[in-house]
Amino acid sequence: MSSEPPPPSQPPTHQVPVGLLDTPRARERSPSPLRGNVVPSPLPTRRTRTFSATVRASQGPVYKGVCKCFCRSKGHGFITPADGGPDIFLHISDVEGEYVPVEGDEVTYKMCSIPPKNEKLQAVEVVITHLAPGTKHETWSGHVVSS
């Protein structure tokens, strides 16, 4: 008796059930609320604002206001105008100077309309004139200063 297995009469073949390769397989994906709805942001940053809009804003009057809120991680906030009226949107790219604005900072700014309907306004060329007293201010590099 030999311990060798008998030689196979045919090489092993892999059988594929009929019909599996005939139809294209749909890729299984989890549903995403954003799939198919990705649109570019309508908020013009300093980088994406048109030259003509920048010129119009820079030629406009300088307004005063107080920073209502600003979130560095989101990159935007709002300014409450000194003369009243609705809050003005503020983008991180339009802040001049070395400090990140915080609630209560007095600022000066110019205004630019937000496309496509140009119904809302955005603050541009924002300069912090007075730091809010008793708050900690952070520079863009991350250094914290108490005022």
From TrEMBL:
Transcription regulation keyword on record: no
One Pfam family per UniProt: CSD
Record Gene3D superfamilies: Nucleic acid-binding proteins (2.40.50.140)
Pro residues composition-biased segments: 1-11
Domain CSD: 62-128
Keyword Membrane: no
UniProt entry keywords in alphabetical sequence: Phosphoprotein
Region (Disordered): 1-47
SMART domains per record: CSP
PANTHER family, sorted: CALCIUM-REGULATED HEAT STABLE PROTEIN CRHSP-24-RELATED, CALCIUM-REGULATED HEAT-STABLE PROTEIN 1
Protein name: Calcium-regulated heat stable protein 1
Gene name of this polypeptide: CARHSP1
